[in-house]
Amino acid sequence: MYIAMNRFKVTPGSEAAFEHLWTSRDTHLKEVPGFVEFHLLRGPRKEDHVLYSSHTIWRDHAAFDAWTKSEAFRAAHHSAGNENRVLYLGHPEFEGFEVIQTVK
């Protein structure tokens, strides 16, 4: 399994707009081979931002890599970074993880 995460520092007062942007968008993920599940996470509030993370689980790194090169990826990210940039500080920070252990 592979977990892909992007961290966003959302400006205070923009939380509802940021959450609406994510929860109302067409993700194109359900049709992608190797996709397992997606989570949008709200984290701690700091003085200058609220931390959010998009968290996607994939069958393996190869499935994630194939998605990043797909038309579905381009469609899902076609407006990323445009007018929505005012909702958060800086650029999203990507982190990718190979799963070593799972306990159920």
UniProtKB/TrEMBL annotation:
InterPro entries associated with the record: ABM_dom, Dimeric_a/b-barrel, Heme-degrading_MO
Limits of the ABM domain: 2-97
Keyword Oxidoreductase: yes
Record-linked SUPFAM superfamilies: Dimeric alpha+beta barrel (SSF54909)
Pfam families: ABM
Keywords, alphabetical: Oxidoreductase
Keyword Glycoprotein in record: no
GO molecular function, one term: heme oxygenase (decyclizing) activity
Residues in the signal sequence: none
Enzyme Commission code(s) on record: 1.14.14.18
Membrane-spanning residues: none
Principal EC category: oxidoreductase
Name of the protein: Heme oxygenase (Staphylobilin-producing)
Origin species: Paraburkholderia ultramafica
